[in-house]
Amino acid sequence: MSKLFKSLESAPPGERLDTGALLDAVRWNDAGLIPAIAQQHDSGEVLMMAWMNRQALEETLASGRVCYFSRSRAKLWRKGETSGQVQSLVNARLDCDGDALLLGVDQRGPACHTGRRSCFYIALDAQDGEIDAAPLVDPATLYRNGDKR
Fold this sequence. Notes:
Blueprint: H1 3-7, H2 19-25, E1 33-40, E2 46-53, H3 54-63, E3 67-70, E4 75-78, E5 87-94, E6 101-107, E7 122-124, E8 129-131, H4 139-142
Parallel strand pairs: 1-6
Antiparallel strand pairs: 1-2, 3-4, 5-6, 7-8
């Protein structure tokens, strides 16, 4: 944990810090990424987890449109650029260690490339995994050029 995040453990509500300084102290992984959980801002529904690099996070904060880093394509991925299922940023929060993000978003349509509202549609218990949600949209109709995200 960085000294900055350690110092924030006792910070009072209302204390303000420079975003650049906070991003300098973030614990980016070896690939320069941080996990980002997208949660529907008004219902609390967890929609997806993706990765952001600093450029994606800065773009998201500046534009209000959520941008991730696609590890498979090794480039920025603006949510909805091929599917039209855009995520608008409502709020962004870093966790106490500076190694994870929670994004409050307004999701238009399904968040998952399978056409489901949430990527978390496989319920697990000790014996089974169960699909508990149907696609809202046929994934073949969501994407142009076969690009699934």
